[in-house]
Backbone:
């Protein structure tokens, strides 16, 4: 596969992960379980939004067609979004939100860790900056998994149920397709076998400390990376894209 196209597609995938998850987490704004969490989740959403903007702007530069992050986010139908299915899952109760974030945060952290030595100058700088933000994200979600798991009987039951449900969406993050193989062989991103082993070790550590059982199901829902999504993404995009589609020529004064 052409290296340039693989790099563009990778940036679109990661940018889409970031913007969809950013939208999901900021749905808690004004509805967080406590004030501190309301603020924390909003800040995490802003971090992800900034990362999305950098990645999708770079994707447009690689393509050379003048597209910006705004074009990618607001002017694509859902079948052209390449985010993994995990990030588009609805918030549900707070345990569901935390389980979704925990699994993604661990993946995101180790992906950025491996990209700090990337042979692509932009991705190397991006990873070195963004990992500082994601280090907080993983600490935040891990601490909540521990609080829920080692808390009351009710909180333990809710986080275990959330982990069991979300688990089916975790495998897609490690699908080692031609795009990933091309970039890994070029030294641009870490190979996914190494990434998966680090993810497994960290997830196992936190789940064990939280007295939670790691699911043993082998079925994994996939399709997001190729544009096949659940109906949940369509509803999310209809809200996120409404203003730009209704007033395509509008500008801030």
Residues:
């Amino acid at each position: 596969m052409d290296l340039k196209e693989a790099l563009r597609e990778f940036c679109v995938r990661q940018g889409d992960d970031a913007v969809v998850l950013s939208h999901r987490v900021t749905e808690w704004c004004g509805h967080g379980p406590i004030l501190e969490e309301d603020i924390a989740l909003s800040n995490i959403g802003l971090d992800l939004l900034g990362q999305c903007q950098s990645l999708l702007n770079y994707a447009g530069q690689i393509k050379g067609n003048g597209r910006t992050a705004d074009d990618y986010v607001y002017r694509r139908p859902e079948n052209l979004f390449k985010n993994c299915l995990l990030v588009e899952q609805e918030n549900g109760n707070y345990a569901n939100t935390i389980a979704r974030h925990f699994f993604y945060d661990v993946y995101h952290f180790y992906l950025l860790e491996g990209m700090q030595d990337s042979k692509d100058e932009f991705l190397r700088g991006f990873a070195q900056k963004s990992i500082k933000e994601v280090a907080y994200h993983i600490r935040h979600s891990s601490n909540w998994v521990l609080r829920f798991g080692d808390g009351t009987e009710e909180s333990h039951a809710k986080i275990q149920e959330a982990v069991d449900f979300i688990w089916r969406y975790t495998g897609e993050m490690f699908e080692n397709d031609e795009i990933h193989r091309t970039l890994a062989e070029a030294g641009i991103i870490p190979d996914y076998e190494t990434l998966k082993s680090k993810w497994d070790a960290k997830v196992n550590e936190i789940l064990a400390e939280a007295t939670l059982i790691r699911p043993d199901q082998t079925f994994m829902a996939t399709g997001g990376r190729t544009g096949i999504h659940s109906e949940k993404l369509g509803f999310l995009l209809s809200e996120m894209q409404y203003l730009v589609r209704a007033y395509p020529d509008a500008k801030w004064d």
In short: The chain has one domain: 3-246.
